[in-house]
C-alpha cells in the first residue's frame, strides 16, 4: 500500500515534468496539436532520413521556431553582435570619431528602434541608413537599441569663442545655447529643451526623448535646422511634430550655440563651462 503510494507520487512527478517540457517545447503556430507520441524536433531530426512521419513532424515544427513570437524588449548581448555592421561609421561602442556620423552611445532603445523603422520605410530620408536598416527586423532594432543604451556617450568640448557682432555680441557661443537650453526663448515660443531632454541632455527613455549630450555639434546643427524649417520625421500616425514646433523661432546663430552647448553637456558638469 505504502509502496503503491510512493509509486503514485513518482508518477505524478514524472507527469508534471513531462507536461512542463511539453509546454516549453515549440509548437506549430497553427494546425492540430501533435499527438502525445509526436517526436520532439530533435528526435525527428535524428530520425528524419529513415522515417517519413518524423520528417513531417520536423517540417511542422519549423514555423513555430522561425515565426517571430511577440517582440520582446531588446537584448543588449544579441544587439552587440547585430551592431557589428554599424561600427564602421558609428564606432564600436557607438561613439563615432567622425562628426559626419551621429553618436549612438547612451541613446535610448525606443528612440533607436523608432529611427531605424523610419529609415527603413523612408519616412526619415537617408540613403545610407535606408540601406543599413533594410534587413533589420523589429527585434533586431530593439536589440541594437538596447546595446547602444548600455554605452556611455563621450562628451565633446563646447565652443567658447566670443561672438563679435549682432544680437548676441560679446557672448560666447555656448552661453547663447545654454540660456535657450535651460529657459527657452519665450519671445519666439521656444520651450526650454530641458523640459524633455533633461538638464544633462540625457533625454527620457519612456516617451522617446532622445539623449543629446555629447553629440557632434555638426550633426545637431543639421537636425535643428531641418526641424526649424518645418521638417518632421514620420508620416501620418508615425509623425512626431514636437520638434518642428519647438524650434520654429531659432536663428542659425542660436542653433549653433545650442549645438555646441549640447556637445559639451555631460552628467558630471551640467553647465559644460570650459573655463
Ligand atoms: C556608412 C555609414 C553608416 C553605417 C555603416 C551605419 N550608419 Fe547609421 N547613420 C549614418 C548617417 C550618415 C546618419 C545620419 C543620418 C541623417 O543625417 O539623418 C546615421 C544615423 C543613424 C541613426 C539616427 C541617430 C539619431 O540620433 O537620430 C541611427 C539610430 C543609426 N544611424 C543606426 C545605425 C545602425 C543600427 C547601423 C548598423 C545596422 C548603422 N546605423 C550603420 C551612417 C551610417
Ligand atoms: C516637448 C518635448 C521636447 C522639447 C521641449 C524639445 N525636444 Fe528635442 N526632441 C523631442 C523628441 C520627441 C524628439 C524625437 C523626434 C522624433 O523621433 O521624431 C526630439 C529630437 C531632438 C533632436 C534630434 C536628436 C537626434 O539624435 O537626431 C535634437 C537635436 C533636439 N531634439 C534638440 C532639442 C533642442 C535644442 C530643444 C530646445 C530648443 C528641444 N529639442 C526641445 C522632444 C522635445
Molecular structure report:
The chain has 13 helices and no strands. The chain has 275 residues and is mostly helical. Among the domains are: 76-149, Cytochrome c-like domain (Cytochrome Bc1 Complex, Chain D, domain 2); 173-264, Cytochrome Bc1 Complex, Chain D, domain 2, CATH 1.10.760. It is globular. Mean pLDDT is 81; it is low at 1-67 and 269-275. The chain binds heme C (2 copies). One heme C (HEC) binds at residues 102, 114, 180, 190-191, 193, 195-197, 208-210, 212, 220, 223-224, 233-234, 240, 242-243, 246-247, 258.
The number of helical elements comes to 13
Q: Provide the low-confidence segments as ranges.
A: 1-67, 269-275
Query: Can you summarize the main beta sheet?
Result: none
Q: What structural class do you assign from the helix and strand content? A: mainly alpha
N-C termini distance:
88 Å
What is the CA-based Rg, rounded? 27 Å
Tell me what portion of residues adopts beta-strand conformation: under 5%
Q: What is the ordering of alpha helices and beta strands?
A: HHHHHHHHHHHHH
Mean pLDDT: 81
- Provide the helix percentage: 40-55%
- The CATH topology of the domain at 173-264 is given as Cytochrome Bc1 Complex, Chain D, domain 2
| CATH H-level homologous superfamily name of the domain at 173-264 | Cytochrome c-like domain
* Beta strands, count: 0
Describe the oligomeric state of these chains in a short phrase. single chain
CATH architecture group name of the domain at 173-264: Orthogonal Bundle
CATH class group of the domain at 173-264? Mainly Alpha
What overall geometry do the principal axes of the alpha carbons give? globular
